[in-house]
Amino acid sequence: MLVLFAGLAAPGHTYPMVPLAVAARDAGHEVHFAAGEHVHGPLGRLGLNPFRPADSFYEIYAEDLEPDLKRLRPDLVVHGWGVPEVAVAAGRAGIPALWHGFGRLFPEGIGLERPAGGTHLDICPPSLQDAGFRATADRIALRPVPFAEPGDFRRPLVYLTLGTAFGTPEVLETAIEGLAALGTHVVVATGRVAPEDLGPLPTHVTARAWVPQAAAISQADLVVHHGGSGTTLAAVAAGVPQLLLPQGADQFANADALVAAGAALRLLPGELTADAVAEQARKASSCREAARGIAEEIAEMPSPDEVARELPKRAK
Description:
Blueprint: E1 2-6, H1 11-14, H2 18-26, E2 30-34, H3 40-45, E3 50-51, H4 62-72, E4 76-80, H5 84-93, E5 97-100, E6 119-122, H6 131-136, E7 138-141, E8 157-161, H7 169-180, E9 185-189, E10 205-208, H8 213-219, E11 222-225, H9 229-237, E12 242-244, H10 251-261, E13 264-266, H11 274-283, H12 288-299, H13 304-310
Parallel strand pairs: 1-2, 1-4, 2-3, 4-5, 5-6, 6-7, 8-9, 8-11, 9-10, 11-12, 12-13
Helix pairs in contact: 2-13, 4-5, 7-11
């Protein structure tokens, strides 16, 4: 069977799909991955045959993918929530398709078209998923598996990231100042901010443009972040308390869900000071039991290997 995966060319959209794509490859299926060149490196190293459809660099439009559907003739298309027109192209070609989520269903008004209809591979644990989506959508549960390279860190550890889209030197510096007051080793993934733009840092704070995030989270005692879906799910899967500093997009909704579940604390932009970060970070250990409960829920979700074995039932 040939399975075509398609995703928005951004780590937060493509990487959640990688575990299932790898599992499908390991199950003996031929896998190709349509995405902009920005994410081709890791996809190529995993043998997932990445290619750029037509002239697409980030988004994929129906007409971008139609020539490749004729060329590859896939039996099944698996596409991310961020590329809804792939569903249109697959429908026109008469090819079965599955939506692949990247976390909690995002709210209206964040710049993405909300998916409608079809069957969804849902990587969000039910306790955090949008209640309306959970009640009405045709969903296939799929355990979220963080995709990252290995790494080793000194403990105790606080991991700080604001992702790749919303971080600013001012917010990072405020968070670093507050976390440095804890006296614990702090590792900062600076993302879009160059580490040299942060100025002098305490000796127990390490700032890097890129950090193997899954490894850092698995070894962290606290994760302080923006509330992006990938970081959120990786932290709850590891059972680690979180302090969320939402900045935009779906981050506020993710923060609301985590706080309601008792697995995280939150500081909104107007509340953000170094003292507030330090205070909330000290309190975050109170979230550990709830975080571990969600981690147990995630561990019981079907693995990518289990779901991959069922994919032929969804093919043409």
